[in-house]
Amino acid sequence: MVKGMSVRANTPNPRRKRRSVVRTAGLIQRVRDLRRMETGAEEEAWGLLRSLRLKGFKFRRQHPLSHYIVDFCCPARRLIVELDGSVHGLPSQIKRDAHRDAQLRNLGYIVARYPNAIVLQAPELFVEKVLTLVWSLPEAFEDKS
Predict the structure, then answer these.
(1) What phi, psi does 103 have (nearest 5°)?
(2) Ramachandran angles phi, psi of 113, nearest 5°
(3) Mean pLDDT across the stretch 26-37?
(4) Could you tell me the end-to-end alpha-carbon distance of the chain, in angstroms, rounded to an integer?
(5) Which residue segments constitute the domains of the chain, with CATH numbers given?
(6) How far is the C-alpha of 62 from the C-alpha of 92, rounded, in Å?
(7) What is the pLDDT of residues 89-102, one digit of tens each?
(8) Using CA atoms, how far apart are residues 28 and 22, in angstroms rounded to an integer?
């Protein structure tokens, strides 16, 4: 054994079978950049969604799924929360969002879209809507036996 190397360093992580081929270094860097440059609505929503951990719901922000990056994701309930600014009202963006949502639904996720205004002007309503939705969803990884 080489000095300074542990036996475990040569063994692969038993939980991770393989890394996703879509999670490229470029995608991971883009996720990091988005986390650093979040909008005011995203920053506020992240604070609100993080507080839901006390109720047992863990969210991730700017989470990569397939080749998309979603605003917020609760993997345990397979829920995606997207915040929409004014650009999402444009016809071309509506079409792109519909296609993206369909792709994410094909991956087994529920996509909930909320306008930025609800987070900034009525944060308690935003939390209530997300909680109502997340409680209505079954555990994604519960034992079916």
Answers:
(1) -65, -40
(2) -110, 135
(3) 88
(4) 44
(5) 40-136 (3.40.960.10)
(6) 23
(7) 889 889 999 999 99
(8) 10
Pick from 36, 70, 72, 78: nearest CA to 51: 72
DSSP secondary structure letter of residue 12: P
Q: What pTM did the predictor assign?
A: 0.78
Dist. CA 55–CA 27, nearest whole Å? 31
Mean pLDDT (whole number) for 52-66: 92
Q: Are 112 and 82 in contact (CB under 8 A)?
A: yes
Tokens 């071309």 -> residue: 92
H-helix segments, 22-122: 25-36, 40-50, 91-106, 116-121
Which residues fall within 8 angstroms of residue 65, CB to CB, at 6 or more apart? 73, 80, 104, 107, 109
Q: Is 102 helix (H, G, I), strand (E, B) or coil?
A: helix
| No. of helices (H) and no. of strands (E), the chain | 5, 4
Q: Confidence class of residue 1 from pLDDT cuts 50, 70 and 90?
A: very low
